[in-house]
Amino acid sequence: MAGREKSLMQKTLVCLIQSLVNVEGKVRIDFRDDTSVTGKVIAVDAYMNVEMEDCTYEAPTGQTIEIKKHMCQGKYIRYVHIPDEVDPIAAIEDRLQILAQAPPKGRGRGRGRGGRGRGGRGGGHFSRGGGGGSSRYGGDSRGGGGGSSRYGGDYRSGSAGSSRYGGDHRGGSGGSSRYGGDHRSGSSSRYGGDHHSGSSYHSGGSYAGSSSRYDRSRY
Q1: 65-76 tens-digit pLDDT
Q2: Roughly how many angstroms between the first and final C-alpha of the chain, as a whole number?
Q3: How far is it, in rounded angstroms, from Cα 19 to Cα 41?
């Protein structure tokens, strides 16, 4: 018996209705919809749900129906007619004594707490420093704000620099090294070139101040 049910039985008149289980005669119960059931009480729970057998159901029109078993829900019960042979005070005292001897049955309220894990400092999908650095596939983002290393690239400083396919970005702001190039300043090296200054380089070879588009000579 749960503690809540035991408390309801001890503090309400449910204990009196439960004493009707031992009564040999039949008990009449009236409902809020002006129907009634007369039968033998076989069980009563803490919420005054009454189970009866060998019942006679009476409709508001006076029509009666014989029912073998019937469950009376406590929230629809209006009256329970106590038979004359039952002493209410003695029945309540006997029932309270039985409830006092019943061992309490409850459930534990303890709740375990799982441990929290913290990511390591190196390798994998972890950002070592800075605000919002992202390393998607094994890259290392160590500093700066918002740097991204997508496929194994190394991003170490600057803000919003991008190394997409293994490129190395070490300085400047906003520089991009897309396919394995080495970018150290603030411009763009697109196809594997080495850029050290502030202009644009599109193919293989080295640029130090002007534009060389097709490896130093056009033809």
Answers
A1: 999 999 999 999
A2: 96
A3: 9
pLDDT of residue 96: 84
pTM metric for this prediction = 0.45
Q: Are 23 and 88 in contact, with CB atoms under 8 Å apart? A: no
Q: CA 211, 212, 216, 219: dihedral to nearest 10 degrees?
A: -120
Helix, strand or coil, per DSSP, at residue 69: strand
How big is the chain, counted in residues? 219
CA distance 49 to 126: 60
Question: Which are the contacts of 62, defined by CB distance < 8 A and separation ≥ 6?
Answer: none
- CB neighbours of 195 closer than 8 A, spacing ≥ 6? 181, 182, 183, 184, 185, 187, 188, 189, 201, 207
Backbone angles phi, psi at 66, to 5 degrees: -85, 130
DSSP state of 76: G
Question: Amino acid identity of 99?
Answer: L
Mapped onto helix, strand or coil, the DSSP state of residue 3 is: helix
What is the average pLDDT score of the chain?
A: 66
> How far are the Cα atoms of 60, 114, 137, 183 from residue 34, in angstroms, in the given order?
6, 56, 74, 90
Report the 10 Å Cβ neighbour count for 183.
28
Write down the residue that tokens 């130093």 correspond to: 216
Query: What does each C-alpha distance from 148 to 128, 151, 173 come to in angstroms?
Result: 12, 10, 12
Report how far residue 173's alpha carbon sits from residue 171's, in angstroms, rounded to the nearest whole number: 7
